[in-house]
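User: Show me sequence and structure for the first protein, then do the same for the second.

Assistant: Starting with the first protein.
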Amino acid sequence: MEFTDIINILLALVSIGFGVIGWLAPRYTMEVLDMTDGGSTMGMSEIRAASGAVFVAVGIGALILGTPEAYAMIGFVWAGGALGRVTSLVLDKRTRLKWIFFATELVVAVIALAVNL
């Protein structure tokens, strides 16, 4: 197994791991992200979908396909998260937690894209 293969598998597992938390533990995820559902279940639904199952699906999909393009998609998905986060940093209040999440998203995106494109 090559170094690139190991990195790709690890990035897929990171995506799946974080996704499972968002998907199956939305209340916990919302607490970590300093979010409330406002008395509706739509907040939890959005976390399960956008912060959870999407990352599970992209990680599993990359593992199933096993191509550089599939693993690059992990990078594009995480880059999308970083783009949304940096938009919030520019337009909304800046917080330490936002910077931490932005840095994490950017690092995963850059590694996945650099290794596979």
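Switching to the second protein now.
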Amino acid sequence: MNAGNSCLTCGACCAHFRIVLHREELLHVPLKLTNQLNEQSFCMKGTDVYPPRCIALEGEVGQGVRCIIYADRPQVCREFNEYELDGSPNPSCFKLRGMVPPPH
């Protein structure tokens, strides 16, 4: 993550979604940070309750946050970004932040 990355101050997705991961991701994600859903699926602790907040999120949402397992975060977290691969704004991200996406 770089200094221009809004994720460094946001964290809205980490305090909104249920973060589900497959058993194979436990090679990287510490088991103690998850709850088992079934034989093959787990979720990050804190995201299976209301209001959700991932156990790996440190800091204050909207002020300054970091993921304590950023380098080893689940695939679903890697795929959710402020901008899509084509450079267009991710509408879900901007909606969570209460913002209108900029024009592409």
